[in-house]
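Renewal narrative, Specific Aim 1. Our central claim is that a sequence can be written position by position from structural information alone. The example that follows is taken directly from our test logs and has not been curated for this report. It begins with the structure tokens describing the chain, in the order in which they were read.
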């Protein structure tokens, strides 16, 4: 079993930055890929970014590519999402997720573990 706890969300003006953190506990963190998803009000949860278990491979949704960076520190059992040049359309609850395999994936169905989410609000 894996427990995931997100932090770092908040209110920021358009063009600003936030750094989300996801602390993992309960099993070997570096065995699995990790990902970030988000869900805006009235919309389905969507893929944002994923990182392989070693951190050597990453993938991003087109809407955030070039603005967001996913990283991980396996010694600290933590995955991060650095978000720059934020836009109002980035407003959502952001979820950290642990994948079943060691390579990153964009598919929600490939993630077995989910955090409770952290709210990110970007004002215009």
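The sequence written for that structure reads:
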């Amino acid at each position: 079993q894996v427990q995931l706890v997100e932090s770092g969300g908040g209110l920021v003006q358009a063009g600003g930055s936030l750094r989300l953190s996801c602390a993992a506990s309960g099993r070997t963190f570096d065995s699995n890929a990790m990902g970030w998803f988000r869900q805006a009000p009235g919309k389905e949860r969507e893929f944002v970014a994923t990182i392989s278990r070693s951190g050597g491979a990453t993938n991003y949704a087109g809407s955030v590519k070039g603005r967001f960076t996913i990283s991980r520190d396996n010694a600290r059992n933590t995955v991060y999402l650095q978000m720059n040049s934020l836009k109002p359309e980035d407003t959502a609850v952001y979820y950290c997720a642990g994948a079943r395999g060691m390579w990153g994936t964009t598919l929600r169905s490939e993630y077995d573990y989910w955090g409770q989410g952290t709210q990110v609000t970007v004002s215009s």
